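ok so for the tutorial part 2 we go from a plain amino acid sequence to predicted structure tokens. step 1 is just haveing the sequence, like this:
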Amino acid sequence: MPRFLSRLAVAGTAVALTAGLITPSAAQAAAEPAGRVRTLAWAALGDSYTAGFVEAAGDETEPRDGCARTTGSYPELIRRGLGPLVELRNVSCAGATVKDVYQTKEAPPGRPLPPLGTNPGAPFPPVPSQIDAVSPGADVITVEIGGNTLGFAEILKGCIELGAAVLGQGTPCKDKFDASLPDRFNQLRGDFDQMLGALHAKAPSARLLTIGYPHLVPEDATRCTYGNLEQFATFTTGDLAWARTAILEPLNAIIAQRTAARGDAFVDLYPSTTGHSVCDQDHWLDGVLTSIIPLRYALVHPNAKGQAHAAALVEDAVLS
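step 2 — the prediction. this is what the tokens look like for a chain of 320 residues:
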């Protein structure tokens, strides 16, 4: 029996055995016909790392709304793997900030056709705040978010441009952005707490799982080749090391800390993706480009291997 079937079967048996120990109304809600297990109502929220976004993570799912959810993203992989055992509402969206999850509407970017192209159908109308898709009776909520609140795209673009200007020497990106990081992280902490509170209020009985970000930059930044568009393009080595230790690792730490403070569960992708960064031979994330010929952009996102790995860990957490 597959792992997820075994777990849900055990859960269903436990419900049946304990039905007499709980109130009749709760027992009636929990009981299922013999031979069946209850479908889990799951809401998948997040940014482009959840949505998939890039061509390396598959084709866009329908209907297309500019959020660029893809067939190879981890929510969609889990949906297909579990079939009728889960009812998934996947409203993850490329470009989403933490506030876009619980408060604001997002104007989604679409998936551009490089170079400098735009997604057919753009500009897209704003999409509702992701919390609107969360049912009050949801069983599980997963959310991977935070990078855009810190300004991932702004910093990526700045590091590439500044690194090119100095021909790979020094730490020009650190010099420009480092002083702004405390304020960015303070904003993230506040927004993340607000988001978790809003999600718990919307679905009081749901298990809430936050998802961390994978290992983008190797421990030894000298493994990345300056000027390689399939890695970090013209990032300097010093700026890559700074981005790992001053941005990505503190980001994951804040997500884990705020999650623990609420008593929720954190799915940590970082340790298990060590050795599979953008600059590793067996890379589970692609760099600025997935390939030069044909020209396929990635903008430092998980490829099919990275999404499959995330799917395995998130599935375990969803069904635990």
